[in-house]
Design goal:
single chain, 130 residues, six-stranded mixed β-sheet, 2 helices, disordered N terminus, disordered C terminus
Length: 130
Amino acid sequence: MLVYGHRWFFRVVIFDNTCYSSFVNRREYDISVTVNGRRITKVVIDPHYELKHSDSVSDNVILSLVKLLDGGIFPLQEKTGMFEYYVTDGLKLEERLYKLVWLLEDNELYIGVVNAYRRKTHGISKRKRT
């Protein structure tokens, strides 16, 4: 169950070869960006990234990556119910590359960050923003 505006949620997610079920304590931050033509006022970060990527990713890094999405139009990867999932690879921040897995929910003004991690410079399929 996902209910925006509350800190604790129970859910099962299967996306980007990730399946997990748990109570999670998501963190929320105010932001002002426009993504895919939608005005976004909040970022909700799932702590899933901390399991394997806490040495190279933090909430501050994720917020900076989300800011890089501002003004962009990104291709939908998958739609499940009211959620649209996106994967943006090759985001450059301080000379490092990152991959961001994120979602938008129908009729909501937030970006949900499912996962984020640092990439090596080789083997990345860079997608152009249009």
